[in-house]
Design a protein that fits this description.
The protein contains three helices and no strands. Helices cover 80% and strands 0% of the residues. It is mainly α. The N and C termini lie far apart (32 Å). It has one domain. The radius of gyration is 14 Å and the shape is globular.
Length: 69
C-alpha cells in the first residue's frame, strides 16, 4: 500500500484486513498460506491488503462499466 495514497482508503483496507484475520474467512486462509510460505506476519498482512485492494478495484471497474451501459 502506498503511504502517500488516499489515507481514508488505506485505513478502510486496513480495517477490512484486520476483520478478515479475526474470523474464519478466505482472507484468513490467504494470510495463513503466506505465513506457511515463510513470510513474516507484516509481509503476510501487506499481501492480504494488496489482494483486498485488487478486489475493491475490480469491483469499482465493473460497476463503472455497468453504469456506462
Amino acid at each position: 500500500m502506498n503511504p502517500r495514497g488516499n489515507p481514508q482508503l488505506n485505513y478502510a483496507i486496513q480495517v477490512i484486513a484486520i476483520s478478515q484475520l479475526r474470523h474464519d474467512t478466505l482472507g484468513r486462509a490467504y494470510y495463513d498460506r503466506k505465513i506457511e510460505e515463510g513470510k513474516t506476519s507484516k509481509e503476510a498482512l501487506r499481501a492480504l491488503k494488496r489482494r483486498l485492494s485488487d478486489i475493491v478495484y475490480r469491483h469499482l471497474v465493473h460497476d463503472a462499466r455497468r453504469q456506462r451501459g
